Amino acid sequence: MDDVEAILDLAERISERELASHLRAADTMEPSLRADGSVAVLPEVGAAVRLMAEAGMFSTVFPSEHGGLQLPHLVHAAALGILMSGNLSTASFPLLTVGNARLLTTYGSPAQIEAFALPQIAGESMGTMCLSEPHAGSSLGDIRTRAILEGQDELGARYRITGNKMWISGGDQDFSDNIVHLVLAKTLADDGQPLPGSRGISLFVVPKILPGGERNDVAVAGLNHKMGYRGLPNCALNFGEGQQQPAGSAGAVGWLVGEIGQGLPQMFQMMNEARTSVGLAGAMLACRGYQMSLEYARERKQGRTVGIASEDQVPIIEHADVRRMLLAQKAISQGALALVLFSARLLDEEKTAPSLAERKKAAALLALLTPATKSWPAEQAQVSLDHALQIHGGSGYTRDFEIELLYRDNRLNPIHEGTTGIQGIDLVGRKIRREDGETFRVLATDIRTTLGDVPPGSPFEAVASALHTALGAVEAAVEVLLAETDEKRALAHATPFLFAFGHLVVGWLWLDQALAAEASLCDPTAEADLLFVRGRMHACRYFAEVELPRVDIWLEPLIKGSSLVLDMSPEEF
After folding, report:
1. Are 160 and 151 in contact (CB under 8 A)?
2. What is the pLDDT of residues 97-136, one digit of tens each?
3. Which one of 18, 379, 417, 547 is the catalytic residue?
4. Is 417 a catalytic residue?
């Protein structure tokens, strides 16, 4: 615990002093494209990234043989979340780089790990993931980037990569020694044509600077100017168009990672970790927004207490509607963080649980929860930040406060790393229907175990009742989805089902927290912060009273068999 507290305290100090201090500057002074094709970022961003590297924030989850600190992923997620709360754009550099290096240490050869992963773990090189293309977006089977075998060297099978990638976060910058791109590209069949769909998609490591010090043929085609998240450059990249031509045949030099045709399964490791990190980003933006609006509500004086004659104005936290919005923010932000950290714990248990059966269970639950872990905090953070802006009133709509910045930053989270709609399709199509609801039933059993921990007469009997009702509704919806023979009809309800499923899981985690809080009050050896504990208990009750009833509303059309969205033709819109 001393190690854990030390890394979290260090993350807090860096976040407050080095990241939060340039949040507004990074938003107003966006990355720019120089005449030579390089990307300039705010100098404070590079300085903060180098400081995080020196502090070991890139190496937390890696084993010691790779220069890592061997901390649990749960601790890494908590530390990263603290950094995100200070400045999401700057904290995204370690997010992407750690995911890149973890993929290479899993699938790369020893030589590739030495050349490309270890510099990222040390924070000397940054990493990206290059999936989407201008015409394909999330439809990765339609990518056109090509890889042609050139030969073999000490780093493995060497290919020439040609194509265009879009929406590449951190695609270029001017503060690291190198940028390591992980690129999805299609290899060719014997007839010289690319294999259709995803069968020919392989993964390649394509560095900006080649091991010999020569510049690779990777060029920035342009910068995407974003609504928020502006401190992190988002690039369109061209591979192998001759603008930065290395010696030899045409194309950027890249090395095959793993085996031919395994690009998507390999990349899904990084993508799923990134999806959990997107959920973490949403949770931490909501948490910061809650803290800011709570402080504002305690200091801002306006109006008078209803029914009490007084000349003095009162802090707006005295007004019931402001308290309602604060309680909603507390329930959403802390519930979202619970969901993300629970998923991070499963990521640890997938590798470290005592038995094979427990490891398999953790892996299955993590896969089931990932769509909700990504999308629920992202979507609900926007609701929470809307409350924060409302509490600030007219001031919240100005740039004098950072709420509007957080609101803009978070709006990307329901979009990138797979939109909310794609997460719904993943949950219903792959995680529920494809495995006949097996893992969901395991989750339902765990939820019922928690419900069984609520004793008669507990102040949380009403919470347990609301959670029991929500569980029953989701179980009924799952049975309808499993019985549906028309895939289109099932997927038409995927996003509302995802919302309901996320609410169910967060409601369960809130009850679990509340029972732990109640137990701490009854434990004479526990040093419980009374106000903190009671605040958690009230937030749990709020979520059960106000949020869990929404589950029935989301699921009612599904359970009734509505086909409204399919019945309406595109022309009728």
Report:
1. no
2. 999 999 999 999 999 999 999 999 999 999 999 999 988 7
3. 417
4. yes
